[in-house]
Amino acid sequence: MSNIRFTGVMPAMLTPFNDDGSIKKDTVKALMDYHYGCGVKGFYINGSTGEGPSLSLKTRLEMSETVMENNNGRGVIIEHVGAPCYNDAVELVKHADKVGVDAISSLAPNFYFSFTDDEIVDYYRSIASYTDKPLIVYVTAHIKSDVVKLVNRLMEIPTVIGLKYTLPDYFLMRKLCEVNGGDINIINGPDEMLICGLIMGAQGCIGSTYNVMPEWFVAEYDAAMKGDWETARQIQYKINRVIDVLLRYSENGAIKGVKAAMTCKGFDMGNAVYPSKVYTASELASLKAELSALGIQF
Q: Is 279 one of the catalytic residues?
């Protein structure tokens, strides 16, 4: 079987939760219905966009269960299981296997600390031992070694099929596309450079701002797959103008702004993880007005 199993547009799903950490189940269903109606191929859950590393284990487990209860085979579900505590990561892997997600993924364990390649490979080999689900590794700026060499080693783990690529270096991405004789599932991360990832060989894409404009990303992906790069480029330009606004309203990363934008769209999102700012009614109205002027439908 080919390792290239996950293609198309897959939003990194936001996690709507109450102040007590419980999941807003009706909102999860509404979000999934909305995005599937826009043509997405599935979701990436409990990742950075979903605030997973900042949420309690209980909340993450409930989110996984809620997503699977509402998916009904409509698309693929990839669950991020990385956690500051290794034992929590193991618990998440076992739970993901139990509820039947399609694949697991994890950031390398070096977000706060520096680990050697041997330690990173051992980490991925260890979490892979708890499930036979496909495993998607991460390539981020936190990996300081020879990335191509490391990915070659990771691909030797039987269930590792590919990676989520979150760097702006598309020369490097192309090198990774050629690892394992080209039989490697490359998933583009940077939303603002999706067209770069697709033209260099990524087969799928996962992103935060997909939540706000899923139909635009689907249209860009479809145009690229048809070789209509001019259309894809113009859509990317339109997307990037929206990303500029979301980043400005978030002040540090896009997650807060994306969650606020979905609140403006009528979804009961709740707030981002404390101590993230709580948007005032006037701030939400201003954000909605700016996004409306760029063509976002509310």
A: no
